[in-house]
Design a protein that fits this description.
about 400 residues; alpha+beta; SH3 type barrels; Alpha-Beta Plaits; 3 domains; 5-stranded antiparallel beta sheet; 3-stranded antiparallel beta sheet; 10 strands
C-alpha cells in the first residue's frame, strides 16, 4: 500500500471526524489507562517497601479509594494537552478546553479530599494509641480545615477559568463584609468558642459532662459545635458558644468517684456483731485496690424505721463509669460475704409477729459469738486476709463482663 493511499485513508471523514483523529483519541485513551496503571503500580510498590507491614492494609484501602478520582484527573489532563494536537474545529476545541479545565479542577479537588481523608485517618489511628485526648479532638478539625483549604483552591481555579478577576472579587467581598459579619455573629461566636475549648481544654473527647439538662459523653469537638452522646444513645449537638458561656460539670476529670450508700441490718443484731460488721466493711475498703484508703467513713449512722443504718461513704478510683460500676459490684459482694460470715441479717421494711419460742417456725436469733471469733472474721476481710474478693472473680466464664 502506497503512502498516498494511507494518507488519503487517514484523512477520510466519518461523522465529521477524520480517521487519524479517531486514532489520536484512541492513543489518548491508551495513555490514560497506561498512566493510571503505572501510577497505581508505583504507589503499591512504595507502600510495600516504605511502610510498616501492619500498615499495608490501611494504605491499600486508601489507595483504592483514590483510584477513580485519579483516573478522572489523568483523563482531564491528557485531554487538555492532547486534544489541541488533533486539530479539531476551533469552536469544538474551546468547548473541550473549558470542559477539560473544569474536569481537571474537579478531579484535583477530589484527589485532594482523598489525600486529606487518608492523612486524617492515619492521624486518628496514631492518636488512638496515645494517652492524650487532645490529638483525638484535633483530627476532625484538621480534616475539616484541610477540605476547606482544598475546596478554596479549587474554587479559585474555577473562577480563573471563568475569567473572573479575583482581586476585584475580594474587594467586592470587603465592601459586603460588614453585612456578612452582622449576619454571621452567632457563627463567629461558635468559631471563637471552639478555639476557646481547644485552648482551655475544659473537657476532652470521651469525658462525661453535665451541661444544664444535658448529660453524656463528649464524642466530637468541631469548629462550630460539640457533639455529646447521651446515655440514652441519642446525639446532641451543642453550639460552642453555649459550651463556653455555661458551667460545664466535667465528671470525667474526677480523681475519685464518691460512692455513698446505707446498709440496713436487723434490729436484733447484738452490739458486738454490729461493731465487727462495721470494722469488717472498713477492712474491705482497705483491701480493695481500686478504693481510696486514706479517707472513708463507715459508722452506725442512725436508727431507721425497720433497720439499723450503717453509713458507707467511700471513694472509687476509676477512669470511666463502667470501671466504677465494676468496683462497686466487687465491694458490695464483699459486704454480703462479710454479713454471711458474721451472721448479720440485712433488714427491709416488714411487720413481724413475735410468738412464743415453743411455736414451730419461730425466728431463731443467732447466738452471741466470742469477740475474738468476731475479730478473726474481720481480719479475714482485711488486706492480708483471704475472705475478701479483692478484684472481680466471676463464678462463671463468659458472663463476667457487664
Amino acid at each position: 500500500m502506497s503512502p498516498n493511499l494511507v494518507f488519503n485513508w487517514l484523512n477520510e471523514s466519518v461523522i465529521g471526524i477524520e480517521i487519524w483523529q479517531f486514532i489520536g483519541l484512541g492513543v489518548m485513551a491508551v495513555i490514560i489507562v497506561v498512566a493510571r496503571f503505572a501510577i497505581i503500580f508505583a504507589l503499591n510498590q512504595a507502600i510495600r517497601r516504605r511502610t510498616a507491614p501492619e500498615r499495608h492494609e490501611f494504605w491499600q484501602f486508601e489507595l483504592k479509594r483514590m483510584q477513580r478520582p485519579l483516573l478522572l484527573l489523568l483523563g482531564a489532563i491528557t485531554l487538555a494537552i492532547g486534544f489541541p494536537v488533533l486539530d479539531f474545529d476551533p469552536d469544538v476545541e474551546n468547548v473541550v478546553e473549558i470542559f477539560a479545565n473544569f474536569a481537571s479542577t474537579f478531579a484535583g479537588v477530589l484527589v485532594g479530599f482523598r489525600l486529606v481523608d487518608a492523612a486524617a485517618d492515619y492521624w486518628r489511628e496514631m492518636a488512638a494509641e496515645t494517652d492524650s485526648k487532645l490529638d483525638d479532638q484535633l483530627v476532625p478539625l484538621a480534616r475539616t480545615a484541610g477540605k476547606i483549604f482544598v475546596g478554596a483552591i479549587g474554587a479559585v481555579f474555577i473562577l480563573q477559568n471563568l475569567d473572573v478577576n479575583i482581586t476585584s472579587l475580594i474587594a467586592g467581598l470587603g465592601l459586603g463584609g460588614l453585612a456578612v459579619a452582622l449576619a454571621a455573629q452567632d457563627t463567629l461566636k461558635n468559631l471563637l468558642g471552639g478555639a476557646t475549648i481547644l485552648a482551655d481544654k475544659p473537657f476532652q473527647v470521651g469525658d462525661w459532662v453535665i451541661l444544664d439538662d444535658i448529660e453524656g459523653t463528649v464524642e466530637q469537638v468541631g469548629f462550630r459545635s460539640t457533639r455529646i452522646r447521651t446515655f440514652a444513645d441519642s446525639l446532641i449537638t451543642v453550639p460552642n458558644a453555649r459550651m463556653t458561656d455555661t458551667a460545664v460539670n466535667n465528671m470525667g476529670q474526677r480523681t475519685w468517684r464518691r460512692y455513698y450508700t446505707t446498709v440496713g441490718i436487723a434490729y436484733h443484731t447484738d452490739p458486738d456483731r454490729i461493731q465487727a460488721f462495721v470494722e469488717g466493711i472498713r477492712a474491705t475498703v482497705r483491701s480493695n485496690p481500686n478504693m481510696r484508703h486514706d479517707y472513708y467513713i463507715v459508722e452506725l449512722h442512725s436508727f431507721g424505721d425497720s433497720a439499723l443504718n450503717i453509713m458507707v461513704y467511700t471513694f472509687i478510683g476509676a477512669s470511666d463509669w463502667n470501671e466504677e460500676l465494676r468496683t462497686r459490684h466487687v465491694f458490695n459482694l464483699d459486704i454480703i460475704r462479710l454479713a454471711n460470715e458474721l451472721q448479720v441479717e440485712f433488714a427491709f421494711p416488714t411487720q413481724t409477729l413475735h410468738l412464743a419460742s415453743s411455736v414451730e417456725g419461730a425466728q431463731e436469733i443467732p447466738a452471741p459469738r466470742d469477740r475474738s471469733d468476731l475479730a478473726q472474721t474481720v481480719d479475714d476481710f482485711a488486706p492480708d486476709g483471704q475472705a475478701g474478693q479483692r478484684t472481680d472473680d466471676p463464678i462463671t466464664r463468659g458472663y463476667d463482663n457487664g
